[in-house]
Amino acid sequence: MASKLLRAVVLGPPGSGKGTVCERIARSFGLQHLSSGQFLRESLGGGGGIVRGGAGDSCPSVLGPWESCRALLCSQNVPSPLSSRFLPCPGFPRTLGQAKALDGICELDLVISLNIPFETLKDRLSARWVHPASGRVYNMDFNPPHTQGVDDVTGEPLVQREEDRPEAVAARLRKYKDAAKPVIELYKSRGILHSFSGTETNKIWPYVYSLLSSRIPPVLSDEEH
């Protein structure tokens, strides 16, 4: 791993592919991906039905967004998180208050914002099912389980979270838009915001990869990610 520091966050509405982008960045650039959902599941011994965080969303409900991400960033289970290259919880900070609180922990080098059309997000979220214990996420349109309704690894039933039901999706997206606007404006005013628009992660990814390649050396080529 290179010694140069890079501290970044990936922002985007629910269903925008933040978790996927973070995983690809971590693999391609040797960054440490700080996933609050995984951290809390491990800390709670698997979590079961207690931690209900999807892999693509920033923080499960057990502590609340800021408390769980702060616990992760300060945890002794994460080796020197603020002295190495890292990518914090995808989708965090979600509010202006969280962004200012994060300022007290570290100074970000860049912020990646994913802009996905409303209709695309609505379709993605409505087709999303999860395995509660692990946080594995499936999409019935483009990433379905091998057997309908059950997790590929454990064979346990998948569930659709209440917030992913069609009637709840529109309200979630409006809430995100209202909360995220001042956060995006804050990082834009600092000159560290980089926005990427599209309907598919695979098409957005090359531009994200190009941006990061101009800052730090990749450990994998774009084709190898």
Automatic annotation (TrEMBL):
<dbReference type="InterPro" id="IPR007862">
    <property type="entry name" value="Adenylate_kinase_lid-dom"/>
</dbReference>
<feature type="domain" description="Adenylate kinase active site lid">
    <location>
        <begin position="128"/>
        <end position="162"/>
    </location>
</feature>
<dbReference type="Pfam" id="PF13207">
    <property type="entry name" value="AAA_17"/>
</dbReference>
<keyword id="KW-0418">Kinase</keyword>
<dbReference type="InterPro" id="IPR027417">
    <property type="entry name" value="P-loop_NTPase"/>
</dbReference>
<comment type="similarity">
    <text>Belongs to the adenylate kinase family.</text>
</comment>
<keyword id="KW-0547">Nucleotide-binding</keyword>
<dbReference type="GO" id="GO:0005524">
    <property type="term" value="F:ATP binding"/>
</dbReference>
<keyword id="KW-0808">Transferase</keyword>
<dbReference type="GO" id="GO:0004017">
    <property type="term" value="F:AMP kinase activity"/>
</dbReference>
<dbReference type="Pfam" id="PF00406">
    <property type="entry name" value="ADK"/>
</dbReference>
<dbReference type="Pfam" id="PF05191">
    <property type="entry name" value="ADK_lid"/>
</dbReference>
<protein>
    <submittedName>
        <fullName>KAD4 kinase</fullName>
    </submittedName>
</protein>
<dbReference type="InterPro" id="IPR000850">
    <property type="entry name" value="Adenylat/UMP-CMP_kin"/>
</dbReference>
